[in-house]
Amino acid sequence: SLTRVDVPGFDLLLTWLPFSVAFTALGVAGVANAVNIIDGFNGLAAGTVMVAAAALGLIAWQAGDAPLAGVCLVLVFAVLGFGAMNFPLGKIFLGDGGAYLLGFMLGWLAVMLPMRNPEVSPWASLLACGYPVIEAVFSLMRRVQRKTHFGQPDRLHLHSLLKSRFIRKRWGWLPSVFQNSATSIPLWAFSALMAWPAVVYARQPDILLLCFVAALLSYWVWYLRLVRFGREFRTKSR
Description:
Number of helices: 10
Shape: globular
Order of helices and strands: HHHHHHHHHH
Radius of gyration: 18 Å
Structural class: mainly alpha
Number of strands: 0
Strand content: under 5%
């Protein structure tokens, strides 16, 4: 279980084993659900998991943890084999079972990395898994604000808005399956932009925290811009 998150005061709570186990279980479950949430377009969840697992593997390798780096590498290539059939034509899909499995594996790798390697900050794991985690947090906030059930699906995720309010309007001439797949590409880039500082600054929690806050703000600005773009487009269409 997680025994530290590099947050003064909270780390003291994590020294109590029942709280540590409960917090870890919540975190792993959160990552598993986060991956399931972003599993909306061809290659989106698979590509994001590959980026995150590759980042965790690189950090493990830098820390001298070859076994954990090897597990991350196996996960990357396993998902790559699936991704070749899923992207761009969607010949097979993850489904809930696949998405939860990948999220569960990614969550435990994220926990094991800083616990096996004390010099690595837990914020590096969080940042490597940043995009799906941020999506899950904003989805939870949206449901609380709208007073809807946490499990109720909607079309207001970042990837949903990107498809309906940008890809479809700018590249509507593409076949539907390619519009679907094109939505994943900028979100892979977003995930990679968060994973990069996780690898470079894995031992510097202060920098990692700033990077995570910057990622949160970037997500929020991007989200608001897509909402505004949709309104502007509808106004011009009239």
